[in-house]
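4.2 Preliminary Data

To establish feasibility before requesting continued support, the project team ran the inverse folding procedure on a target of 386 residues. The structure was first converted into the token representation described in Section 3, and no sequence information of any kind was made available to the design step. The complete token record follows.
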């Protein structure tokens, strides 16, 4: 490990990067609160519901605010479009009857790479009951065995990088779900990988039996038994112990935002930024609030037409009002569906999905991002991975 770094406190790792006093903090908080209020007034509506896939809940295990839900298709066949690392939009209904769309990572719970003709494909999701839930996690926790669960075709923003010679997978809490999915694929490929699994207690680690069954010998599990203050050290150790060149090593992380911030901070000392991958389904408040200088009105040019984007409305809102064809899902910058490319102007990126490289290549989330320049020229995105 490097002298003077790596074995920092748990607070540093889980609290994210240390920041000085933000002179715009109140503006950011007000902007975020205003956006949340507007979203609350307009409930999410499922799109492309006609393409929904019907699953059946086979089993539900609950403990300490965590639910492990086992699902399968009606005929036991694989979920169409499933890929390691993918997630799906779940079409749920709140106790009040409101239609909700929430994203959860899917992972396989059946044996892979076998030719057993009678084997049914079984998948799982792991859901934490959020204390500030807007209804999604409550609806998921209300699923019972035998219930029909509808999802949209899976999407993948967390795929394995091709050509990696070593993969380090890090999951915390329910963030272990996509990590487990990636690890199962790497195991089939007989690739070089290791998994670090952080959970607050063994009782809350509902996927522990799956990890013990399928990833035996490749996973180190760390629980809140006096070792949590060493977590940054575990990350440092896993990175420093590798004999694979940094450019051939990839790290994947999923968990609470503060946890991911800390892991990424440690990883950037060892690996190229392009080799660090993360998955998030909830936008951070500071990210959504953005730069308060961009909260005002601006113009957007698309296909030669100019559109006025007023304060308090997003580019996506304006496009939808003007009947500009555009797909969307999350409305909070976490799915990438509404992406367009910046051709000219200075954007204020407020999404939580695109990498720095993708931003440099012009990726722009119309649902949340704004403009620091008076005019922003956009074009339709041709290749999400460009």
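Position-by-position output of the design step:
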């Amino acid at each position: 490990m490097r002298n003077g770094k790596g074995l920092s406190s748990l607070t540093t790792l889980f609290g994210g990067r240390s920041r000085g006093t933000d002179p715009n903090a109140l503006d950011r908080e007000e902007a975020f609160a205003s956006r949340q209020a507007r979203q609350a007034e307009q409930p999410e509506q499922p799109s492309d519901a006609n393409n929904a896939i019907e699953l059946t809940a086979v089993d539900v295990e609950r403990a300490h605010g965590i639910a492990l839900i086992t699902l399968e298709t009606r005929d036991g066949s694989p979920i169409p479009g499933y890929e390691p690392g993918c997630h799906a939009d779940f079409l749920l209904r709140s106790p009040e009857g409101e239609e909700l769309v929430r994203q959860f990572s899917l992972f396989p719970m059946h044996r892979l790479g076998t030719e057993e003709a009678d084997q049914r494909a079984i998948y799982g999701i792991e859901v934490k009951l959020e204390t500030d839930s807007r209804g999604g996690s409550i609806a998921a926790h209300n699923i019972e065995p035998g219930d029909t669960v509808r999802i949209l075709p899976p999407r993948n923003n967390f795929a394995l990088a091709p050509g990696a010679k070593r993969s380090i997978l890090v999951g915390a809490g329910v963030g272990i779900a996509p990590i487990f999915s990636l690890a199962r694929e790497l195991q089939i490929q007989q690739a070089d990988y290791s998994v670090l699994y952080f959970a607050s207690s063994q009782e809350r680690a509902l996927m522990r039996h799956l990890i013990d069954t399928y990833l035996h010998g490749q996973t180190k599990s760390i629980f809140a038994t006096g070792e949590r203050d060493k977590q940054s050290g575990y990350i440092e150790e896993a990175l420093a112990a590798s004999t694979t060149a940094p450019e051939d090593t990839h790290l994947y992380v999923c968990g609470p935002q503060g946890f991911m911030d800390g892991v990424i901070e440690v990883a950037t000392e060892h690996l190229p930024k392009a080799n660090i991958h993360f998955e998030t389904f909830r936008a951070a408040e500071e990210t959504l609030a953005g730069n308060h200088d961009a909260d005002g009105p601006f113009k957007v040019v698309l296909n030669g037409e100019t559109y006025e984007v007023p304060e308090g409305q997003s580019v996506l809102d304006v496009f939808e009002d003007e009947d500009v064809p555009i797909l969307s899902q999350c409305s909070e910058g976490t799915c990438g569906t509404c992406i367009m490319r910046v051709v000219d102007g200075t954007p204020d990126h407020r999404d939580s999905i695109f990498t720095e490289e993708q931003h440099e290549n012009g990726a722009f989330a119309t649902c949340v991002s704004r403009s620091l320049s008076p005019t922003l020229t956009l074009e339709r995105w041709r290749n999400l991975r460009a």
